[in-house]
Amino acid sequence: MMVTVSGWDIGGAHLKAALTDSQGKVIACTQVVCPLWQGLDQLTTAFEQIKYKLGSIGHIAVITMTGELVDIFKDRCEGVVAILNYARQFFTDIPIYIFAGTHGFIQLEQSYKFTTSIASANYLATSQLAANFWHEGLLLDIGSTTSDLVPFKNKTPCLQGIDDHTRLISGELVYSGVVRTPLMAICEKAPFYGNWVRLTAEHFSTTADVYHMLGLLPQDVDLYPSADHRGKSPQDCARRLARMIGIDYKNRPLDFWYQLAAYFYEKQCQQLTVAIFQILSKTSLVAEAPIIGVGIGRFLAIECAKRINRPYFDFSKVLKLGVDTIDSSHGPAAAIAQLGWEQLQKH
């Protein structure tokens, strides 16, 4: 069956989508902001923007989601149902399949029976694709808000957690990302001018400031306003970092603020490395099993691989790409599109 497939990753802060050609190669992948906590109408704007960017929604749509977690819904089941209902309204002319984790792709009409399996299952799409390629390894998908850490062996993800709660316990889900995470969630204090300074418990600065200062975060993947809705130059980022320790950034040269940013980078690497060691203490992987980096924060995955002395590969290695400009920044969307296309060929 020669069809094109669009893959949609409906998050609580972003909508991401990818499009395959009729040969199953990913030819487009993009994201837009979608602050779903502000209401379901945000999906309307986001879907229309993505449709314009992709130029097509394909012959078939496949969907995964994490947006059911936002607090406009009383629980995850209500969120899943609401997003499914929206998808039914938007994709009126093409078949829709929902990714339900270990159940695979299910037609929309049948998916309402599998809300628990559908909720926050996007990490299973990327990890399954990685497991199809490498015999064993550890996938690190580091995004704007969260990080997914998924071990796999024998062509199968070997998860300890089965939902967000148990994955938070197991270390397989860490609420730490490279754009939206408040710095007060990274550590409680920071060294500055020879002293340890306790951080203010305010949303004055996020990890985006850290990585803009260090030159690790491209502007085109940071789509949200800064914490004070001002610019993202080194001076702007330094001003927000200074608020975290209760002073004005002009009190010290810019080099001091670069050093403070480097400390937050170090502490976030430690967060992830600690989670990796927790996972590896339960799931033994051979020494040569690699770290697979996915997401806009995969530069942290590279650093984590160095620290635990394991080889590193980029997730783009497993993607069938139709154009050279696509990378693994939006891994779940690309993975869901590719897996969806491959499954459809079997029917």
Highlighted features:
Hydantoinase_A, ATPase_NBD, 37% helix, MfnF, 347 residues, six-stranded mixed sheet, alpha/beta, Nucleotidyltransferase, domain 5
Question: Explain this structure to me?
Answer:
The structure is a single chain. With 347 residues, this protein is α/β, with parallel strands linked by helices. It has a domain at 5-123 and 318-344: ATPase, nucleotide binding domain (Nucleotidyltransferase, domain 5, 2-Layer Sandwich). The chain contains eleven helices and 14 strands. It has helices at residues 41-54, 76-90, 108-111, 115-118, 122-133, 164-170, 207-213, 234-244, 254-282, 298-307, 331-344; strands at residues 5-10, 14-20, 26-33, 60-65, 96-99, 105-107, 136-142, 147-153, 156-157, 173-174, 189-192, 195-198, 291-294, 312-314. The strands form three sheets. A six-stranded mixed sheet has the order 3-2-1-4-5-6, with helices on both faces. Helix 7 (207-213) packs across helix 8 (234-244).
Give the SSE layout:
Blueprint: E1 5-10, E2 14-20, E3 26-33, H1 41-54, E4 60-65, H2 76-90, E5 96-99, E6 105-107, H3 108-111, H4 115-118, H5 122-133, E7 136-142, E8 147-153, E9 156-157, H6 164-170, E10 173-174, E11 189-192, E12 195-198, H7 207-213, H8 234-244, H9 254-282, E13 291-294, H10 298-307, E14 312-314, H11 331-344
Protein name: H4MPT-linked C1 transfer pathway protein
Organism: Candidatus Nitrosacidococcus tergens
Domain Hydantoinase A/oxoprolinase: 63-309
